[in-house]
Specification:
single chain; mainly alpha; 2% strand; two-stranded antiparallel sheet; 66% helix; 6 helices
Length: 202
């Protein structure tokens, strides 16, 4: 999948603008994840069901992004960046829910789901370059498995753990690398000696 990692005029931008570019990439990765599930024969029947699975991909990807940027941005900028990324991802999701399902109070539900996932995933192992650990990927697989139709449902968790999550993370890594290069070129503060993992942005 091609990802957008540069701004149109290639000038460095703010953290919020960078988060907006990355959120667009997260949406594309999530949509591709659902399409790949369908191509593998897993059952999805409605647009709302697909959007619910996309929402799970977004929660997973936002948290993985938080882990990836740890140590490349200082703590305040990391939280600012991840918060902007989460909110912009929610906005894109809500816009699509309104288009598909009509008017409704989708934003509060989406925020609650995102906060729950960021807190949940914070308890799982993550490392570089291997990415999300076994438990992290299994939890993501469980959440997606609960949303698909009954056809071949028992295999969804294994597919997400072994194929869906790794492919999504690899594409995300390229997008994060490109977007952060633009941010860092603009002189955003970094903490070069930081190490380890972090919890979710707030």
């Amino acid at each position: 999948m091609r990802v957008r990692t540069r701004f149109k005029n290639r000038k460095p931008r703010s953290l919020e603008e960078a988060a907006g570019v990355l959120a667009f990439n997260l949406w594309r990765i999530a949509c591709q994840g659902v399409l790949d599930l369908e191509n593998e024969g897993f059952q999805t029947d409605t647009q709302r069901q697909r959007l619910d699975i996309i929402a799970e991909f977004l929660g997973f990807l936002v948290h993985v992004t938080d882990r990836m940027v740890y140590g490349r941005l200082d703590e305040a900028d990391r939280r600012r960046f991840v918060t902007a990324l989460a909110l912009r991802s929610i906005e894109i999701l809500v816009d699509n829910l309104r288009d598909v399902c009509g008017p409704g109070e989708y934003r509060e539900e989406a925020i609650a789901r995102m906060n729950e996932r960021l807190a949940d995933y914070a308890g799982y192992e993550y490392g570089e370059p291997e990415g999300p650990g076994f438990g992290f990927r299994r939890r993501f697989g469980d959440l997606v498995q609960a949303l698909v139709g009954p056809k071949d449902r028992q295999w969804v968790q294994s597919y997400i753990m072994d194929v869906g999550a790794p492919e999504a993370v690899e594409t995300l890594r390229k997008a994060v690398r490109g977007v952060l290069a633009q941010v860092e070129a603009g002189g955003q503060r970094k903490t070069p000696d930081a190490a380890g993992t972090s919890g979710a942005g707030s």
